[in-house]
């Protein structure tokens, strides 16, 4: 391995592993507040469900594709404006990254956004899958990369749907707890 390859590998690991991991660890602790169950004695520290954690990390990693995608898109603009086709992918990457925060925090709007992102990702990746098949014959390495990335994105999209279900269940349970607590609160006149 020469110096350029080593430098590329180090940069790749920092960008796609270290930065998303650091982002996760900074946000996860704050996110516990959104998952705090309430009981009659007060609050206890919540735990973000493991699947939500995994999907948030995946969202941070896939969301990091925004920067390379932006550069590829800008380069593609020079070549007959082909970079314009990267715009939906850039939008998706940015929204996935941002929703990773909301999922970790257990925010109310995160479930709705996760479902929207699932639909958007499935449509975009259906097109991407067709393009990757076309590239298999013209540029096999690029076609294989695009096909692999498409499959990872599709798996992530279905995971977002599962996270939305988990978030909805969490919020329903929290509402039920509030209703139970309200029935046990004694109202005293002043």
UniProtKB/TrEMBL annotation:
Keywords associated with the record: Membrane, Transmembrane, Transmembrane helix
Chain segments annotated as transmembrane: 6-27, 48-67, 73-97, 117-137, 143-164
Lineage: superkingdom: Bacteria
Protein name, per record: Uncharacterized protein
């Amino acid at each position: 391995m020469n110096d350029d390859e080593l430098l590329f590998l180090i940069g790749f690991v920092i960008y796609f592993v270290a930065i998303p991991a650091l982002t996760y660890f900074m946000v996860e602790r704050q996110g516990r507040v959104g998952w705090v169950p309430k009981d009659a004695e007060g609050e206890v520290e919540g735990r973000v469900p493991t699947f939500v954690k995994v999907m948030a990390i995946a969202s941070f990693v896939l969301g990091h594709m925004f920067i390379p995608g932006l550069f590829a898109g800008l380069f593609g603009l020079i070549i007959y404006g082909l970079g314009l086709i990267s715009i939906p992918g850039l939008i998706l990457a940015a929204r996935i990254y941002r929703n990773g925060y909301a999922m970790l925090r257990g925010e109310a709007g995160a479930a709705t956004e996760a479902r929207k992102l699932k639909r958007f990702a499935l449509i975009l990746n259906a097109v991407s899958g067709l393009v990757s098949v076309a590239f298999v014959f013209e540029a096999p390495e690029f076609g294989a990369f695009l096909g692999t990335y498409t499959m990872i994105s599709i798996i992530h999209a279905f995971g977002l749907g599962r996270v939305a279900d988990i978030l909805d269940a969490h919020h329903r349970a929290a509402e039920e707890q509030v209703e139970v607590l309200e029935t046990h609160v004694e109202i005293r006149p002043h």
